[in-house]
Amino acid sequence: MSQVAFCAAPASTFLTARLAALRAGRALHVTAASSRLERLFDLTATRSLLT
């Protein structure tokens, strides 16, 4: 995995939006993610927070 490169900006954007939603007493769930986005959630260990 040391040679795997990816941009985590999309995950960061979703996590920032999730935090804003939680602060507003709401929730944010991704319900129709592309396979690439699902893989990014797996790589960044954020799937359980967003789905």
Silhouette: elongated
Q: Round the mean pLDDT to the nearest integer and report it.
A: 85
Characterize the biggest β-sheet: none
Instruction: Write the element-wise H/E pattern from the N-terminal end onward.
Output: HHH
Q: What oligomeric arrangement do these chains adopt?
A: single chain
Number of helices: 3
Strand element count: 0
Protein structure class: mainly alpha
What key phrases describe this protein's structure?
51 residues; mainly alpha; 3 helices; 0% strand
Describe what is shown at a glance:
With 51 residues, the protein is an all-alpha fold.
How does this model look, in words?
This protein is mainly alpha-helical. 55% of the residues lie in helices and 0% in strands. The protein has helices at residues 9-23, 35-43, 47-50. The radius of gyration is 12 Å and the shape is elongated. The model has no long low-confidence stretch (mean pLDDT 85).
Secondary-structure topology with pairs:
Elements: H1 9-23, H2 35-43, H3 47-50
